Q: What sequence folds into this?
């Protein structure tokens, strides 16, 4: 386990990500070095034509409720230590998988995944 | 918009309803707004719904407890323009959906008369409309043939 994954695992423990639903955050490690829509689809197990939306870290942390701000700040801190961080939302339906991916010091693509419901 | 995203303006809705029939009806309303002005009222009814984690009468923890409704309803008045007066043949769409996991994409099968929503909720709709006209608008369930869009998932 890399240091980044270790830190992410600690940081997301017990946290729920808010949208129209609530979902756990889980650390992910990605094979290969690409951080793009194709990689995001592959992670989501989604077919070729499925929509992938890219958003910023600010967008991603916008829905955090005030009482969780401090805990999510730690998650953001770890994510911001990664290089070329990108956020992807994958899915054509209201329920979408979300991935925040970047590269750690060793060049491994790592990050967190969660789920949102947006109608 | 500011008053939309408030805790007092949301209810615990089953994923099946929220992401399927309810969402499809919202999408349908958006298509109608291209040529019409819509007046929409909606709300919860009763206690006890069912979501992904099974049946529940309430959710939350500590002091923050929210009732889970048994049903959700919506009443939509469809006018040709913002300043148009409702007439006897004005279209009204009313639905009552169960707040559980049985709900699919077809919202049209949940259509009822506005009168039925009034009976269930105790509300009176279209108070400022002439009584005879309002009565006629409320009498029957909407029966306009609606083409239901397929789910947005594209074939692989």
A:
């Amino acid at each position: 386990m890399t240091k980044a994954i270790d830190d992410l695992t600690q940081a997301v423990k017990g946290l729920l990500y808010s949208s129209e639903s609530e979902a756990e955050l889980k650390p992910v490690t990605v094979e290969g070095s690409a951080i793009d829509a194709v990689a995001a689809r592959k992670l989501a197990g989604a077919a070729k034509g499925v929509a992938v939306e890219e958003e910023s870290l600010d967008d991603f942390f916008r829905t955090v409720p005030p009482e969780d701000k401090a805990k999510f700040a730690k998650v953001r801190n770890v994510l911001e230590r990664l290089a070329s961080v990108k956020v992807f939302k994958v899915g054509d339906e209201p329920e979408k998988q979300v991935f925040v991916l970047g590269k750690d010091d060793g060049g491994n693509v790592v990050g967190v995944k969660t789920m949102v419901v947006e109608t | 918009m500011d008053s939309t995203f408030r805790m007092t303006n949301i209810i615990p809705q089953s994923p099946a309803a929220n992401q399927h029939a309810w969402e499809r009806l919202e999408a349908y309303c958006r298509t109608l707004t291209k040529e019409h002005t819509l007046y929409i009222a909606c709300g919860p009814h009763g206690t006890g719904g069912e979501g992904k984690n099974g049946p529940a009468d309430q959710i939350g923890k500590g002091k923050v407890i929210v009732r889970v409704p048994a049903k959700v309803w919506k009443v939509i008045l469809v006018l040709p323009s913002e300043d148009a007066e409702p007439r006897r043949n004005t279209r009204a769409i009313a639905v009552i959906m169960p707040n559980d996991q049985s709900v699919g994409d077809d919202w049209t099968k949940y259509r009822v008369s506005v009168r039925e929503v009034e009976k269930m909720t105790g509300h009176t709709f279209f108070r400022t409309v002439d009584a005879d006209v309002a009565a006629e608008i409320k009498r029957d369930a909407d029966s306009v043939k609606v083409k239901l869009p397929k789910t947005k998932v594209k074939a692989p």
